[in-house]
Amino acid sequence: MRTFELEVRAVTAETPLIRAFELAAPDGAALPGFSAGAHLKIAVPGLAEPRCYSLIELAPDAAAFDRPTRYRLGVRIEDASRGGSRFMHALKAGDRVTVTGPKNDFPLHAPASGEAPVVLLAGGIGITPVASMAAALKAAGRPFVLHYSGRSRDQLAFVDELAALAGDALVLHADDDPMTRLEVGALLDSVKPTRGEAPHLYVCGPKGMIDATIDGAKARGWPAGHVHFELFATAAPVAGDQPFELELRQSGRILTVPADKTIVEVMEAAGCDPMFDCKRGECGVCTATVLEGVPDHRDYFLTDSEKAAGKLIQICISRAKSARLVLDL
């Protein structure tokens, strides 16, 4: 991935909480191509780690992905922002930002011609990668249906552009409207298999929506490989979390993991160099072997059988149910 500087060409308010940013090379040069689901890492002054924001593309044109002349981002201001969304919402035309990417951890696997329509499901700002998938599918002539949900109709961004892109394939949902409120179970029940096989489903949005979709699809017998998702949230404390002792067997170090810190965070603070990437329990890069103790699995990477065995853990997000955890690190 490249790291380079981009200029903010335009900022538009899409909703009271979401702004769209158009970024381009200062000299107008072509930008690296990307695929639907990709994101940029934005350097934020004062923060050690960059913030990731999905690229949104609503033109059903392969050239918009392969040979872009500008990037577009959608960013929601967060009440609990640690600085990323506040920094982004303070940008104005003419400002410059340092970016790395594009990178895609949420790739689209377009179905073969004649298969069931791809089901796209977005909640809130999760529309950004999902909208790009709709555009890519439209450009490829692949069928899809796009469900987009928010707390209220005025919190749904890019609606006019989405309607122009998707037409009747766009279904809007608002939590405050009983007639359109999203019911994940009912949505999954409405999806009909093709030749006995469930379609591919892509979901991005709040953790509760993603969990309900994964659990609902599993209960209905959907293959795990047909449900694709991306979380925007990293690990967060859960009520009842307790500190625990962590032993790194290879180095012999003993650390304490507080209730409000992850294993990765504690290891980094202690000068260790743990392997990790997404910090959301999705990618599997941080997998470690458990030698003693009982993991508290909170990831989306390990299978049910692997979690039940208790021999592996994703150290970026999972914790310990036992007072002590020994890892082969």
From TrEMBL:
Q: Which domain of life is it from?
A: Bacteria
Q: Where is the 2Fe-2S ferredoxin-type domain?
A: 242-329
Q: Provide the species name.
A: Aromatoleum evansii
MF-aspect GO terms: oxidoreductase activity
The lineage is: Bacteria, Pseudomonadati, Pseudomonadota, Betaproteobacteria, Rhodocyclales
Keywords of this protein's UniProt record, alphabetized?
A: Oxidoreductase
Q: Which InterPro entries match?
A: 2Fe-2S_ferredoxin-like_sf (IPR036010), 2Fe-2S_ferredoxin-type (IPR001041), 2Fe2S_fd_BS (IPR006058), Beta-grasp_dom_sf (IPR012675), FAD-bd_FR_type (IPR017927), FNR_nucleotide-bd (IPR039261), MRET (IPR050415), OxRdtase_FAD/NAD-bd (IPR001433)
Keyword Oxidoreductase tagged: yes
Q: What sequence ranges are listed for the domain FAD-binding FR-type?
A: 1-109
- Annotated PANTHER family: BLR2392 PROTEIN (PTHR47354:SF2), NADH OXIDOREDUCTASE HCR (PTHR47354)
Q: What is this protein called?
A: PDR/VanB family oxidoreductase
EC number(s) of the enzyme?
A: 1.-.-.-
